[in-house]
Amino acid sequence: MDPKTLFSLQGKVALVTGGATGIGRMAATGLMMAGAHVLIASRKGDACEAVARALNAMDSPGTVEGFAGDVSSEDGIAALVKEVGERSDKLHILMNNAGVTWGAPLGQFPHAAWEKVMNVNVAGLFHLTQALLPTLIASASPDDPARVVNVGSVMGEAALGDGAYSYAASKAAVLHMTKIMAKELAGHHITVNALAPGPFVSKMTAFATADEGMRDKVGADVPLGRVGRDEDIAGCMQFLCGRGGAYLTGAVLPVSGGIQVMSGPNLFRAALEG
Known about the structure:
Elements: H1 3-6, E1 13-17, H2 22-33, E2 37-42, H3 45-56, E3 63-68, H4 74-87, E4 93-96, H5 112-139, E5 146-151, H6 165-185, E6 190-195, H7 206-209, H8 212-220, H9 230-241, E7 252-253, H10 269-273
Parallel strand pairs: 1-2, 1-4, 2-3, 4-5, 5-6, 6-7
Helix pairs in contact: 2-9, 4-5, 5-6
């Protein structure tokens, strides 16, 4: 067992949606550092191109290409699949990271927020994976399965609304869909796993992680005492997509610093201390 090859992704082709910022960029960086050729796509193609240039300037065995891609509509998904096919005839790794959120207080949460969030976070994830299945299957083997990694959230595991009701429900759906896909695609030599991140620095969480003081306050409420770091996501992706993760499917990695196991107070503490 060679530690140099256990997490190597040399020769692999990956697609990361929403790969220009936040968790997507962290994942793309980790995949690139392990040797993969990484395609990053989001609605802002110019941002993806800029990130690709920045990542390619690093001392890394992998490479990155950036371009526009939109999973919010059927036509957008078809165009993204076509673009991927024109850039590579193989696809070993798909990371479904693109997502949107919406926040409003209970009692003021708009109906439109459900359709928008569910359409991207759940329907977009499902239909993109479905459309790319022929390429994933053709790139897979019993010894080295193709990999699908879906990005959920700790809000999909724990009863956390925090004003983002449709987002939390959509991420619960992502985690359940991950297990369904894992069951149905195992016979095609495709593993399907999910990340359930807690607070990381990103555009989506900028309202709470924009500066160091805010990050420290957020991290203080996390059992492990901090917000997530780039290497936390990169390490998970290298594990799930490398040889070390080849026998794992249907799993949810709780990259949340322990938030998913937080519970109420010790029910008997007052009596025992009294």
